[in-house]
Design a protein that fits this description.
Elements lengths: L2 H19 L7 H11 L3 H20 L4 H11 L7 H12 L8 H22 L2
Helix pairs in contact: 1-3, 3-6, 4-5
Length: 128
C-alpha cells in the first residue's frame, strides 16, 4: 500500500462512519437505505462492514495512480510497438478508454481489500 491508498482508505472510513451517525444532506435513497441497515448492526460488525467498504473504495479509486506503471510496462515489454509515452497513452485510450489505465488492478485490488479488511477487523476486535 502507498500513501495515496492509506489517505483514501482513512478518508472514506471517516466519511462512512460519520454518515452512519448523521445521514449526509442530499444523500441518494440507496445510500440512506444502506445507512439504515448499517445502524441495525452491532458496532463491531458495523465497523467490519465499513472497513470493507472503505478498503474497496480506497483501492479501486486510487488504482488510477497506477496508470504510469501500466504505460511504462507496455513500453518496456514492446519498445518497437510503444516507442513513446504519448503514443502508448493514445493506444491504451483508443482500445480500452479510461479503464485501460487501471488494467490489472482488479485482482491486485481483491487481495488488498481482503488483507486490509482482515487485518483491521482483527485489530478492531482486539481493542475495545
Amino acid at each position: 500500500r502507498n500513501f495515496s491508498w492509506n489517505f483514501a482508505f482513512f478518508e472514506w472510513k471517516r466519511f462512512l462512519h460519520n454518515a452512519v451517525e448523521v445521514t449526509p444532506e442530499g444523500a441518494p435513497g440507496w445510500f440512506c437505505a444502506h445507512l439504515e441497515w448499517l445502524r441495525t448492526l452491532d458496532k463491531k460488525d458495523q465497523a467490519n462492514v465499513l472497513t470493507f467498504e472503505s478498503a474497496t473504495l480506497g483501492t479501486y479509486l486510487t488504482f488510477f495512480n497506477m496508470a504510469g506503471d501500466n504505460v511504462k510496462t507496455k513500453m518496456q515489454y514492446d519498445p518497437q510497438r510503444y516507442p513513446s509515452f504519448v503514443g502508448t497513452c493514445q493506444d491504451i485510450w483508443s482500445k480500452h478508454g479510461l479503464v485501460g489505465f487501471a488494467r490489472g488492478s482488479l485482482f491486485k485490488g481483491i487481495y488488498l481489500i481482503l488483507g486490509a479488511t482482515v487485518a483491521i477487523g482483527i485489530q478492531e476486535r482486539l481493542t475495545e
